[in-house]
Design brief:
single chain; globular
Length: about 120
């Protein structure tokens, strides 16, 4: 595995750990992170249409841009509630753990072709 990929894996582990700490500090039960972990993988349903639609829907659901935008809206007061923080943190946790495990952003040719390399192949 290439050195930049290892750096991304270490970074992802740090993000996941930070999310757990913040999540618990905000008074949310840690087990929610595990309980709804797979919910974010509903973004894979686009693959039922085609690899291109699947890659786009997966990447939208697995990019830090979504949780960062929700966090920003919450921070500037556009959304006044605790639920955006809950959603942001569970979403970021899912992305971090996925990337830690090697599930990167998808290319449009096939599900296993990611920016972190091939998923499910012996490296």
């Amino acid at each position: 595995m290439a050195l930049p990929v290892w750096f991304q894996r270490i970074e992802s582990a740090a993000v996941a750990a930070l999310v757990v700490v913040v999540f618990v500090q905000l008074g949310f039960a840690w087990w929610w992170l595990v309980a709804i972990f797979l919910l974010w993988d509903l973004s894979m349903l686009g693959y039922l249409v085609s690899p291109t639609v699947g890659a786009v829907s997966y990447n939208v659901g697995h990019s830090y841009l979504g949780p960062a935008t929700l966090l920003l809206l919450s921070w500037v007061g556009a959304v006044d509630a605790r639920w955006p923080l809950f959603v942001t943190l569970t979403w970021a946790f899912h992305i971090a753990v996925d990337r830690l495990l090697g599930y990167g952003l998808k290319f449009t040719d096939r599900f296993t072709h990611t920016h972190l390399g091939e998923v499910g192949t012996k490296r």
